[in-house]
Every structure is written in structure tokens, then in C-alpha cells.
């Protein structure tokens, strides 16, 4: 397993959390001192060998890292090139979300916070948070949109089994966006006793930075593994982007390897032209939402537009500020695939590799078809796809849609 | 000096506190918003906070969330809210107006345009709930150029360093958040509020207004002992909504505000007897 030493003195963000014009801190005043405290604690923690040792130990023996870099032979036959899957689906709890939840709960413990809150869409971050709260004996409340409570019922039961309280959110669109608003409101109210474990590279500074850093174990391992297995760097990294944590985690350690193409895949939902999608980088515009400046799906008056995706984990109108910066700077490129294409990729990966991937992950795999059609994958092209989560949680949706 | 500061100071000289009332523009509709503002002025309200609704008001509790959504559902926009302000200003030019919103609608409208149109609509100040002073340099430039006050919030969690730096760029008045939490009517005044106000007072001569949770004359009286003004929002928004179809809506709302206003006055003051 790669060192979990957290990257030091990163070039971005700057001291105020800015990635170019994006990021920053746009929150009610009440939260500013808590964000300052979190920044200071994180600075101290990442210079603390004991913190790194504790995190490494847990990632190894509790999460099961390093996760394999698996050569997907039959997907390679389908799409051409040499396709590897970084198997975050094999992490304890079934997705990459646990990497960040563990890091943040250690910070919460250092700050003496007794209570944890989190938002969740697909339920994977909620489950990861409930898991680490059970492990560390902290009280845990998870905000989840009513629509997601219905479509991710299994994850709701998992959270409850581990002692978390799942609070259904009925305001607004009843999905991740509104669950995040409610979690923020709870935090504003209980900020003195409570740490908010944000699940993606979104929100006010320092969250986009620290979630990226905790997730960058994905890319550090993948980099070592591909060098060991192929003797060279990949040509391309492909990962789905909702808020963008698994993709940032994979991309970040390759940021300076400028020959490695970074490809993020958003959810086109029913199709970009229908307006019912979650693709702010593909079809949105810059704005300020839930604590930071970033691309956003919004109307001409600056009201945030409802998003749609079959995948609850991507069903979010915003995106992490660093992705906005990577898009504008040209370092990363972004595309989008529809609900139907994602479903097709779930089926294909199950049939060809015997791996049932999450609907979120399926967006990344489906996009290999677009890359192939565009002539970007030839026999020698070495591709690492982030297999961010397993699909057990989606079986009800998938069974219905695919008439299983 | 900004008109808000000036009016606060005049009230203070009389031993009186300012009553600032919040309404969402367009809830239940723009005409009623304008009529309500005029009635409230008649009832003695010292300034109006006019909310420009935003889809994701994360500092607001259920009352203002629902109100914002109702306003958006009837087609309220930033431009239309400015028009409401202009109509209010035409009818009751003596009533200071503060716009309250979130940053994204301002950004989308264009910061400079927003500041200029606000002033042209008779607006005295702006509160942008999620705009922290650290991110406000560009906005502040436009607001200053238009001579528009920007009111920032301070909270019970604000450190002394922060109280000092926020007070420095604040103008009009300082909005002191009464408790950690979101907006919404509460039963009591927090025990540590006076301490918070005393702490803030050390760093600024600007008037201090307290909001979040204020809904009853007793709250107003208690807060008036140490602050310069109160902001009442959710309770009024709920009252307006409950009586939206009541032909006596204007009277009900202004009676409520008159009761609150009476609580800001000393019993023996000449103004104690009545409304405008």
C-alpha cells in the first residue's frame, strides 16, 4: 500500500481555499470560526506522524487497503486498449467514501467533537460516516433526501443498524442538494459540539482540500501499482464526477504527470438537451453554492436548478471547485453520459467481468465507449478507471430498469 | 453618514431602539409586499428588510425557506424585487430599505448593476447572508462606489479578531445573530446574548441590531436594554402567510409590528403614545 503521508504544501488551493476564481468560503458568519478551527487542526494533523500512522493502520486493517488495480481483460476487449479498474468497490462499506470519513473522524476526535453529522445522496457517504461513528463511539445523524431514502433503502437500513439516525429531508428537491442544506443548518445550530463530515470535494474551505487529500490515497496507490504492473504511467484516467471526490482522489497524484489525460464523467441524466441532468461542468455556469464558487446548474436569475440522475450519488447541481479550475485550466476534460448509457455499463460490467458496479461508477465505464468512438483508445492505450463503488445498493433500481 | 446609521442614532438619542421588519418580496405577491411595507411604516417600523428569494437559503429556518419558495413559485426575481423596493420608496420615502439575499443571485445579476439598481430603487443597504468579508472585496468596491451600505453579520461564535475585522468593513449597522442557528421565531432570548453584544460593542461605534429568533414584545424589550435595534423576520413572515387571504391582512400585520415598536420605546417618551 502506498504511503498515506498526506501531500504537503500543495500548490492549490491558496491560503483562503481558492482554486483560481473558484472555491473560497461563502457561509453564514456563525460557521467561520469552526472552519478556521478545522483548517488549523488539519494543518497540525498533517504534520503529525502519529496521525498518519493511525490513519494508515485503519486504512490497512479496517478498510482493507491497498485496493487492487485490476486488469479488466474482457472490458479491454470491448473498448480496446488496456483497461484497469481501481477497485474502490472492494473497500470496507463498498465505496471510496470511507477513506475520507476515516480521515475526518480522526480530525473530529482531535477537536473533541462529540457528535457527527453528514449529508448523503446514494447513501454510501452516509454508510461510511455511520461506520466510522460506530467504530469511534460518536453520535451520528445523517441527512438524506426523501427521494433518496426511498431509492437507496438498503443503505438506510445499514446506517440504522450501525446506530446512526437517518433524517429524511422533505424540502426542495428532496435529494442530495437539500440534504446538504439541512446538514449545514444543523451545523450552524450545533457548531460548538458537532463536526460536519462533508462527503465530497465541495463546500467551504478547507473541505475541498482536505477531502481531496484524504481521497488521494486512491491515486497514490494506483500510480505505484500501474508502475509495478505495466512499468509506465497510464495514458488516461477516467472517473465519474458528482461532487467529484473519487475523481479528485484518483487525479491528484497524477496532476504533475502532464501526459496523463484526466477525464471526468458527469451524469447527463435524461440527456443534456432535456435540461434534466447533473452536468454543471458540461452544461452549467460559474456561481456560488453551498459554501464555494464553482460551476453550477442555475437559471438566469441565479436560482439553483433541480438536477436529475438515475444515480443518487451524482444527483447534485454543483461540483467541487477544483474540478471547475481543472476544466478552465484545461488540465482535465469532462464529458457526460445518460441514465440509459450508465445502466448499459452496469449490465456490461456484470456480464463481462462479473463485477456489479454502482450506477455512479457505471458512468465512467460507459464513457469508455465515447472515448473509443472518438478514436481516443487504441490497442496500446493504458487506461485506469476508478471503480468507485459496488452496485448492491442499486439492485432495486437496476432490477426494475433492466427487467431482471 | 448612511441614512440607516443616522436614523439609528436619532432613535438612540431618544432612548429608543430601531425595529427592522423582514418580508420576502413577492410573498404572497408584489403588490401586497408594497402595501405591507407602507402599513408597517405607518405602524412605526424604522426600516424594512426586503428578502430577495434564493432557492437554497442555508442560513434560514423553515419559515423563511417556505416563504422564499412561495415567492419563487409566483415568479419573483431579483429585478422584480428591486421594483418592489422602488415602489415602496416612492410611496414612503421616509422608510429605509435593506435588501437581504444570498450571493449567487447578486453575482448572476452583476455586482455593479446590482449595487447601482439598488440605489436607484431607493435602497439604503444590503445584507448578503453568505458573503463573508474575506470574499467581499469586489462587491465592496461596487457598493462603496454606489454609496450603498453593506451590513455584515456577527455571531456568538465570532472571535474578537473577527469582530474587529468584520466591524471595520461593515456599514449602516451590524447585524448581530442572537444565537448559533438559523432564522426562526423562538420562545426566549439567549442568556449569553448581552455578553455577545458587549463584546462586539468594544470594537465598533456602529449601531448593533439583533436578529434570529426575535418575535415577541418581551424579546424586544429585553434586547433593547443592551442593543440598538431588533430584526423581526420569521414571525412576521408566518403571520403574513397565515393571513394571506384575510381582508384584514394589512391591519393584522401592522398591529403586530405596532406592538413590537411600542416595546422599543420608553413609556414616558412622546412617541410612546402612537404610530406615525
Tell me the layout of helices and strands.
The complex is a heterodimer of chains A (404) and B (276).
Chain A: E1 18-19, E2 22-23, H1 32-45, H2 49-63, E3 69-71, H3 73-79, E4 82-87, H4 97-110, E5 115-120, H5 124-136, E6 139-145, H6 146-151, H7 153-161, E7 165-169, H8 176-190, E8 194-196, H9 207-215, H10 217-230, E9 236-240, H11 245-251, E10 261-269, H12 280-283, E11 285-289, E12 292-296, H13 321-329, E13 332-338, H14 339-353, H15 359-373, E14 382-387, H16 395-401
Parallel strand pairs in A: 4-14, 5-6, 5-8, 6-7, 9-10, 9-14, 10-13
Antiparallel strand pairs in A: 1-2, 3-4, 11-12
Helix pairs in contact in A: 2-4, 4-5, 4-9, 5-7, 9-11, 10-11, 14-15
Chain B: H1 3-13, E1 18-24, H2 30-42, E2 47-51, H3 62-73, H4 78-91, E3 97-101, H5 103-109, H6 111-120, E4 125-128, H7 137-145, E5 149-150, E6 153-154, H8 160-169, E7 174-177, H9 193-201, E8 208-211, H10 217-224, E9 229-232, H11 234-242, H12 249-262
Parallel strand pairs in B: 1-2, 1-9, 2-3, 3-4, 4-5, 6-7, 7-8, 8-9
Helix pairs in contact in B: 2-4, 2-12, 6-7
- SSE class of chain A: alpha/beta
Number of helices, where a helix is a run of at least 4 consecutive DSSP H or I residues of chain B: 12
Tell me which protein chains meet in the greatest interface and how many residues each side has: A-B, 35 and 40 residues
Q: If classified by CATH, what would the architecture of chain B be?
A: Alpha-Beta Barrel
Instruction: Tell me the name of the CATH class of chain B.
Output: Alpha Beta
Instruction: Give the rounded overall mean pLDDT of chain B.
Output: 95
Strand numbers in spatial order across the main sheet of chain A: 3-4-14-9-10-13
Provide the low-confidence segments of chain A as ranges.
Answer: none
**Helix/strand order of chain A, N-terminal first:** EEHHEHEHEHEHHEHEHHEHEHEEHEHHEH
CATH homologous superfamily of chain B - what is it? Answer: Aldolase class I
Characterize the biggest β-sheet of chain A. 6 strands, mixed
CATH topology of chain B: TIM Barrel
Report mean pLDDT of chain A, rounded to a whole number.
Answer: 95
Widest sheet: strand ordering of chain B: 5-4-3-2-1-9-8-7-6
In total, how many domains does the architecture of chain B comprise? 1
Radius of gyration of chain B: 17 Å
